[in-house]
Structure formats: C-alpha cells, structure tokens
Amino acid sequence: MPDGWQWDQTLFRGSAAYYDQGRLPYAPGFADRLVETLGLDGQGRLLDVGCGPGTVTLALAGHFASVVGVDPDPDMLAEARRRALRLGVDNAYWVGARAEDLPAGLGVFQTVLFAQSFHWTDRDRVAATVFDMLVPGGAFVHMSDHKEPPAQPAPLPHPAPPFGRIHALVRDYLGEVRRAGQGVLVNGTPDREDLVVERAGFEGFQRLIVPAGEVVERSADDVVAWVFSRSDSAPHLFGDRRDEFEYDLRGVLRDASPDGVFAEQLPDTEIMLWRKPPQ
C-alpha cells in the first residue's frame, strides 16, 4: 500500500462511467499469451482482484470454467455486469469486496490476477492470502502497461494528447501532491512486486512483454474520459468546480488539436507471473 495513505471507498468514485472510453486497451494478444503460458484449457477458476469494469476478467472468461471479479467500487461492478450481458458471458460472477477481505468464502482458484491493482493493496497480507487460495501449481499474475516506450515509436498522424499540460491543469485545481481518494500519494505508488510475491512463497518468476504498437485515433471526448477515469483526477475530487475544470481541460485540448483529433501508440503489456509450488 502506498506510504502514508489509507484506502477509502472514494478512490475511483465516479470513474466507472469513463473507464471503457478513456482507458487504452491492453495489447491485443495478451489473452492468447496467457492461455499459452499457463496452459489454459477451459477448466478451473480465475479470480481477478480489483477487476474494475471487468476488462481482463471478460477477455479471459472463455478460457476458464468460471471467473470471479472482485472490486470494492459498486459502479465498476455494475459496469462489469452490463459488459458481461452485452458480450453474452455467462460464467462470470462479481463480488463487492476489497483485496484485504479475501478469501471472502470464494474458494480455491487456478489463477489469481491483478491488473494494475496490486499497488493499492496491503501487498504482503494480500499475497499471503492469495497463496492459500491457489491450488498447488496455481499462478499469481500481475499485469500492467509496459512503462518503457518502444524503441522506434510509430509516427503519429495527429497530435498526441498534451499530457504535460493536462497534469499541470489537474495540479492547478487539486494541488501539487497527487490525490487518491480522500488522501494523497506523497511518494507515489509502490513497485518491486517481485520481492513481495516471492516473500509470500511463490516461485518460478516469468516476465512476458506482449507487443502492441498500433496507433489509434482519440477524440477530445476520449481524452476527457481518460482524465476522469484516473484515481488522481476522479470527478468527485473537483467538487463543485468539476464543470469549470472540464471547460478548462477542453480548452487545453483545443489548443493542442483544433479539430479535436489526437493519436496515441498503444503501449505494450507487461505480464509477470509466479507459481505456487506443487505439493
């Protein structure tokens, strides 16, 4: 868990409605890579902790007998249910809970996955609990965007979103220290998941980079949705200045691209996984 920060239920309040439109997708081949690496055959159970609107849960649902998404935000789970219904996924189950509430009577799993959510948890405690929830030989999977840019970035047909100016505007409204729920992240979020997971008893570390690289067009509405999908600029943080902030944000975007069209290169996806030792 980030230094000096306490979780509260407003961390992503109001963000679920913007998540699907605002967030860039993971690399298109991430599900196939996991299927191959883990030898998934449509059997067993997946637990996705901090599942948000079910992005990864639903992408993998066809490769398990059942999948369970856990998230403390009711709006995220409502969006996940809508997406499952729209996609015709009938083996997904959604549970309102924090990672620290596990095992929560959910049983045992072949795979437990955290997609850009592990850093919000009491990591040592949660990793130890997950160890007990996995079958022998089961996999602990951590997914995130790959932070290193591509060696040869693709040329963009439109301006990139002006991220520097966007973050500066957020700081003007919310202060210099990054906000998160009712607290702040003085030192950012923690890393070195490898040390935490291995302390819990997992072994056999593997690191996979799934390439993406496609260039996608983004509208001004998409970029606004991205801003409001983030914990450090969730809609509730602006209070009664939310509309004023969005007006100024759209002004920044018009300055950067008068026609309101942007382009971004999709980041690669980084997957780290470990195994619970077999008995």
Automatic annotation (TrEMBL):
Gene3D superfamilies: Vaccinia Virus protein VP39 (3.40.50.150)
Xref: InterPro entries: Diverse_substrate_MTase, Methyltransf_25, SAM-dependent_MTases_sf
Positions of the Methyltransferase domain: 47-138
GO biological process: methylation
Record Pfam families: Methyltransf_25
Keyword Methyltransferase: yes
GO molecular function terms attached to this record: methyltransferase activity
Lineage: superkingdom: Bacteria
Keyword annotations from UniProtKB, A to Z: Methyltransferase, Transferase
Protein name: Methyltransferase
The organism of origin for this protein: Polymorphospora rubra
